[in-house]
Amino acid sequence: MLMRTGDPEMAREINRSLILSYLRNVDKTHRAEIAKKLHLTKATVTTIINQLIQENLVKVLGEGEAQKIGGRKPVLITLDNLKNLIIGIDIGKTNTVVAIGDLNGKLVKLSRKATVKDPTVNNVIKNISDILKNMIEETKTDRERIVGVGVSAAGIVNGKKGVVELSPDFNWKNVPLKNLLASELNYPAVIDNCTRVMMLGEKWYGNAKKVSNAFFVNIGYGIGSAIIIDGKIYYNHSEFGHLYVTGKKVKCYCKKYGCLEVVASGNAIEKIANRILNKTGKGWITAENVVMMARDGNNTANKIFMDAGKYIGRSISSVANFLNPEKIIIGGGVSLAGELLLNPIIEEFQKQTMEIIKGNTSVELSKLGMDAGVLGAMALGLNHFVFQPEKNKV
Ligand SMILES: [Zn+2]
Q1: 53, 85, 93, 112: most buried, per Cβ within 10 A?
Q2: What distance in angstroms lies between residue 292's CA and the mean position of ligand 1's atoms?
Q3: pLDDT in tens, 67-80
């Protein structure tokens, strides 16, 4: 889309976003510095800052040192972090995580609870509402300060419409989750697919900070992916888990054979482990159990991760050859296996990736672990309601 530069209202909104984003990345600053850094006139900056002060988004700290002898002392300003709070919600198959963060995205409180056993839309929403009410009471949070709610949901999510079009985890179809949550919680809401939200978490808090091009792989029960290109999340749905990687005749739920997901996801790891390690057939070996067995020196358990890692390494090598991102980040529950998974990924990646690409694409484990989703949900909410309101996306 072309930028409508002739529209003064639009220009003001864009400048406001630029100033807020700039403030987010510095401890304190003053009007002249903002004008200089963002190439705006002092008058424009002053008008916008005065409005942000009125809206309680910015506060005055006091006077700083004069820039030159005899010059006027600048008025130092900063984001008014605690006057504005955001709620992040990560609705996972196993856990529901709710967090309160400040305007700068700093975590104030996090609560992780089991997702309801019978995940109907009503039950899931009621559970979230209960968790949030308790948190607000415990932390004595002023409800008026909450600017909105960012939500991470699994499956095919249309963030613009606020609809979960398909959730295989919960067996949901076309659920208008954004509106349902907004009316239950009494705050405006924004939702998106969990892997894109985790990528945003990596961008704000994790390995993708200061990175313009990155690829994120979410290895949980399934395998999802998200991409940042030129600093922006690529919005189209990407299905890295369904790349063709093996001639093995294992059928995927997508009705095709040989997908990465059937040989390397948490689900695949559990199925393989129960087939070859569960001699008695009693109980169920979880992916976590396989990690512990491998760490205890069980060669078969170790081989399961070697194989999964090999297939993931092969697939990300295709992505690297194709996109040459600065970073490929491996996250999600299965990434908690750490080097058990990372070592074979890197070994295969080194083998299969072009020399010229290898040098500038690094492959890393996420440092955010299971918090990537909820942190990303806070970032999603802050981006949407404060820093880059949807109307500014040009
Ligand atoms: Zn598939």
Answers
A1: 85
A2: 28
A3: 666 677 889 999 99
**pLDDT reading at 1 higher than 60:** no
What separation in Å is there between the alpha carbon of 179 and the centre of ligand 1? Answer: 31
* CATH number belonging to domain 83-193+373-392: 3.30.420.40
Q: How many A from CA of 24 to the centre of ligand 1?
A: 40
From 150, 190, 171, 149, select the one nearest 93 (Cα to Cα).
Answer: 171
Percent of the chain with pLDDT over 70: 96
Residue showing tokens 């909104």: 13
* 262, burial (CB in 10 Å: exposed 0-12, middle 13-18, buried 19+): buried
Measured in Å, residue 335 CA sits from the centre of ligand 1 at 20
Distance, CA 78 to ligand 1 centroid (Å)? 48
64: CA distance to ligand 1 center in Å?
A: 59
CA 204, CA 387: separation in Å to the nearest integer?
13
306 Cα: distance to centroid of ligand 1 (angstroms):
21
Query: Considering the entire predicted model, what is its pTM?
Result: 0.91
- CA gap 340, 336 in Å, rounded: 9
CATH architecture for the domain at 207-367: 2-Layer Sandwich (3.30)
